[in-house]
Specification:
This protein is α/β, with parallel strands linked by helices. It is built from 15 helices and 14 strands. The structure holds adenosine-5'-diphosphate. Keywords: ATP-binding, Cytoplasm, Kinase, Magnesium, Metal-binding, Nucleotide-binding, Transferase.
């Protein structure tokens, strides 16, 4: 059966069509610059790529163009072949503890949660509405970035802020990248041959977060109320002393929104190095002797290891560390910088295995903690969730 996994942004729709339960990818594609006369539409399948520029004034038109193209190129013989659509939704709050079949009430709840995720939930909802209108008889499922982390206990998800902030305004740690943390931790348990495990998943991409997963359940994660918390990322600062924000507001004579913008878009790798938010650029600069590029990776590696140490203690041990996402899967340098700092936990990296691509065990046979690279697949995870909710 064919399932579509959809990630809708404010001006884009990314999608993947998967054959289930084989989990084989049939097509991927993206509609960009929705709302303009020169929007672009790209699909890839069978190793070929088709691209066209056209007017796409809203998400509904975007969805129609996607479906027409799939038929035109013979990927589908009719839209009735699509038996389910899974939508990535960023914030599920405490309302959603698992993925859910979308109805009018669910859609409204997703929109209402937009208060906490104004850049994401409204856009996700727009995508859902467009697909529901065009495929009204097909099951549509919301898969949230936050639900995997809903198993955290209060001591892990509460901040040291007034308790009423939590009860009245929902101020707590939610965590993000949940589909990736779930996919990778499930795969690690398969590789370890047990569910009775203590894992740390390091999802390190442009956005980055860690999770501590005990017996298949998330017990802690580094992102918080928003994806800004944690360690430095491509352009995000990660956690800082909260008093810095009002101090710098005065020093720079800017608004608090502008400070949040700087912490989200001009910090992390980019802010520390002054060069780029892309780890490949930093690695090249390091080879040329650029000290601030090295510092950007050093600060990130140090803080990642801080989280690993704290999760080790919180879980009472550790069986495996799993690296995933753009940087986690591809940067042998950062993995080594992290593993070298973990000698005290008995982590021993196999330098040769660390250079390889794809899924691999990259620790030595003597290592007390196994270290894996496990490529993530959020779309497969979304399609699995759709399957599990289909009657
Ligand atoms: P996001 O989904 O958060 O945008 P990704 O998971 O795609 O991020 O990761 C993007 C990061 O992955 C970039 O910093 C990029 O440099 C890095 N990356 C991708 N491929 C490689 C590679 N071959 N070597 C090193 N880094 C890579």
């Amino acid at each position: 059966m064919k399932i579509m996994a959809v990630n809708a942004g404010s001006s884009s729709i990314k999608f993947q069509l998967l054959d289930m339960p084989s989990e084989k990818q049939i097509t991927t594609g993206i509609v960009e610059r929705i709302g303009s006369d020169n929007a672009s539409f790209t699909i890839k399948f069978d190793g070929q790529k088709y691209q066209k520029t056209t007017s796409i004034l809203n998400h509904g038109v975007g969805v129609s163009i996607i479906l027409e193209a799939l038929i035109e190129h013979g990927v589908l013989s009719s839209i009735n072949e699509i038996e389910g659509v899974g939508h990535r939704v960023v914030q599920g709050g405490e309302v959603f503890k698992s993925s859910v079949v979308i109805n009018d009430q669910v859609l409204q709840q997703i929109i209402d949660l937009g208060d906490m995720a104004p850049l994401h939930n409204p856009a996700n909802a727009t995508g859902i509405k467009a697909f529901r209108e065009i495929l009204p008889n097909v099951i549509q499922v919301a898969v949230f970035d936050t639900t995997f982390h809903q198993t955290m206990k209060e001591d892990a998800f509460l901040y040291g802020t007034p308790y009423e902030w939590y009860t009245k305004y929902g101020i707590r740690k939610y965590g993000f990248h949940g589909t990736s943390h779930q996919f990778v931790s499930e795969r690690a348990n398969e590789l370890l041959g047990s569910n009775d495990t203590k894992l740390i998943v390091c999802h390190i991409g442009n956005g980055a977060s860690l999770s501590a997963v005990k017996n298949g359940q998330c017990v802690d994660t580094s992102m918080g109320f928003t994806p800004l918390e944690g360690f430095p990322m491509g352009t995000r600062s990660g956690s800082i002393d909260p008093a810095i924000t009002s101090y710098m507001e005065k020093k720079l004579n800017v608004s608090s929104d502008r400070i949040t913008d700087i912490l989200n878009k001009e910090s992390g790798y980019l802010g520390i190095s002054g060069i780029s938010n892309d780890s490949r650029d930093l690695e090249n600069a390091i080879l040329e002797g650029n000290e601030r590029a090295r510092l950007a990776l050093d600060v990130q590696a140090k803080q990642i290891v801080d989280y690993i140490g704290s999760y080790y203690v919180y879980m009472g041990g550790l069986d495996a560390i799993c690296f995933t996402a753009g940087i986690g899967e591809n940067s042998a340098i950062l993995r080594k910088m992290i593993a070298d700092r973990l000698g005290v936990l008995g982590v021993e990296l196999d330098e040769r295995m660390n250079q390889l691509r794809g899924e691999n065990l990259i620790s030595t046979a003597n290592s007390k903690v196994k270290v894996y690279v496990i490529p993530t697949d959020e779309e497969v995870m979304i399609a699995r969730e759709v399957m599990s909710l289909q009657k």
